[in-house]
Amino acid sequence: MNKRQFIKTLTASSLTLPSFGKNYDKTMARFEQQKPEDLAQNEDFWAEIRKAYRIKPDYINLENGYYSFAPQETLEAFIGNVREINFQASYYMRTRQFDDKAEARKKLAALAGCSVEELIITRNTTESLDTVIAGYDWKAGDEAVMAMQDYGAMLDMFKLQARRYGIVNKIVSIPNHPKSDEEIVEIYEKAITPKTRLLMVCHMINITGHILPVRKICDMAHAKGVDVMVDGAHALAHIDYKISDLGCDYYGSSLHKWLSVPLGAGLLYVKKDKISKLWQMFGDMGYQDDDIRKLNHTGTHPVHTDLTISNAIDFHQKIGIQRKEARLRFLQEYWTKQVRDIPNIVVNTPANAQRACGIANVGIKTMKPADLAKTLLSKYKIWTVAIDYANVQGCRITPNVYTSTAELDKFVAALKELAA
Ligand SMILES: Cc1ncc(COP(=O)(O)O)c(C=O)c1O
Hints:
13 strands; binds pyridoxal-5'-phosphate
């Protein structure tokens, strides 16, 4: 089977499905001229998008931050990929696997806004960022800066380097409601000393949805000779940006989050001139030191997931990042604006539109986060996740493009009842 036939077989199952519901093309034509901010409020348009998903009726899913399940057309393409690779077996693995991954990598680099030579496909953000943390040639006394609001797996990886090499981790805390970008930059700046080598920062803090001024943090850190590694687990395919515009040295993201690739795909970006000094975790000696592919030797793995990245990007681009970002921000503001000023309710996410998008966190002063999450599910059939550490006590609320304002109305009504 040649490449064209193979790709045809792979995508055949997805072609038989209605894309975005049967009326999608007509809907698109009707609304094409609308600005993303106006379209964001158009429930008719988003109801068409909703038809692309198989939605579990048991509860309202406001926990898409863990991972965003795939729309039907991506799922069917994925199943087609699994079938075809099972059919072709080791023949596929020996003949097409690497070229196909290279194609997926190219398409992903274009989406992420960086050169293909600076990006690899990994299994998730954890693998991406841990590859960087463990790949440094740490010396005793070297310092790293991070925040207590960062993701636990990476904080643990830094702790491991402290045990193994004697590095010192400086942990700052990011306020939920900063007055300015400069306030955040200064917090990181104050933690830097002449011994600091690496600074980790979240593009979007996962427990609050807080978007940090990454470009300004990178500029400040670089002026002091410090590398910056960005945790972009929640930013990719959620907000509109290019990795190359951020000025960072390393960037990791998970594709099963906002890009809705089936579970187990991520990306790692390493700036060209930083590749050669990183040690690979798996002993791949087949590439030059400055070839990022040296960091990508994970052994035999589910290649059908890598193949489906292309299908997920196609779906994502049919909506378009500007429309998606505008809708996700609209949904977040739709509910947060209704509860922000209620005395017993605490919104742990900034109100400034530039500092948040789809994710927000809300607590009720008189309830533990775990009790709030439990009650939302048992009494109101709303699925969320409780967060109870650092300066964040509440439930993280992550709608997705299929979420309707009618669902958020139910959530707001539940919050008001519980807060009363
Ligand atoms: C900010 C952040 N970083 C890293 C991760 C880890 O992602 P993964 O489990 O896909 O590696 C997550 C997961 O939720 C996250 O929210």
